[in-house]
Amino acid sequence: MTFGAENPNAEGSALGCDFETSKKIFDLYYSKGGNFIDTANIYAGGRSEKFLGDMIGERRSNLVLATKYTLNLGHIMPQNRADKRRECLSGNSRKSLVENLDASLKRMQIGYIDLLYIHAWEYRTPVEEVMRALDDCVRCGKVLYCGVSDTPAWVISKANTMAHFKDWTPFIALQTRYNMLERTLENDLLPMAVECGLGIVPWGVIAEGFLTGKHKQDSIQPTARTGRINRHVKEEQNWKILSTVEKVAKEIGKTPAQVAINWTCRACTSPLIGARTVQQLEDNLGALDFKLTKDQLRELDEASTYTLPFPHSMRYTSFAAGGCSVEKPVAFLGPPPP
Which SUPFAM superfamilies match (predicted)? Predict the structure, then answer.
């Protein structure tokens, strides 16, 4: 997401960095052993994919490239907004898939996508159409695996059940939001992913930068630059969570961002990071160099406790289990810490 700004002030470029910086980040990541790259047709108006295509070169076979379709580039490109015919290029329909997949392959100068996600569920295209169209893309060799992003658990369950009985390609990865400020993944999506065998690839793991600790409660001012975290600063509970993250980070000599990223690792396959500088990437990669203890995880969990919605609020009641306490299976939160 952070690759692709030709002009930092241009539409569709707010999150991106220029080609020179993007290449430095990419080269460092690759030199550290990184091989999984996540992007989308919509990021930076398509420039994120274009930058990647110009960087990959002979390293293509060593990389797992993931991109997404669903969102329409026409919505963020001023020259296209007036043309209502571009509506057919959005959503999860077969036409949208074919058009956007071919465009992504062209921008990245490659012959196939390792992992193609639907970017979001738009409640418009039938599940049958989506799964059959994705399966066709796999069978013709343009896509190797299929994933799903920002979609309700019931849709994914239906889709994979259908794929199983029709011998179509199932979803094998789930991309969704997850951090200490947003733990609703644990209610339905995480148990569903465990039962259906989907890898979890969370985004927003440092809550738009809030969990880095660089913003202070008594000094932060709402600006365009901080716009993405303005919703976090309004909740007193979020500052309490951040305080606990900073406390744990200080105790173990790590940064708050490293602690926040490390915390997500027990419940996911691979957390997504969106560094905009080489320094940020180096710091983020440091999250892999340590393990939080049981006590530290418990402290962070307690600080970020949230109110469970019904029927999950009944999860810990004992009357339904003959007086026995009812706990969420350990598998739903990954392996226990050492």
Answer: NAD(P)-linked oxidoreductase
SS3 assignment, position 10? coil
Q: Which domains can be identified in the chain, with CATH numbers?
A: 19-332 (3.20.20.100)
Three-class SS state of 61: helix
120-175 confidence digits (pLDDT tens): 999 999 999 999 999 999 999 999 999 999 999 999 999 999 999 999 999 999 99
d(CA 240, CA 261): 18
Give the span between the Cα atoms of 273 and 281, in whole angstroms. 8
Q: What is the pTM of this model?
A: 0.89
Q: Of residues 29, 30, 43, 316, which has the active-site annotation?
A: 43
Q: How many CA atoms lie within 13 A of 283 on its CB side?
A: 19
* Active site (annotated) includes residue 306: no
270: left (phi over 0), alpha (psi -120 to 50) or beta: beta
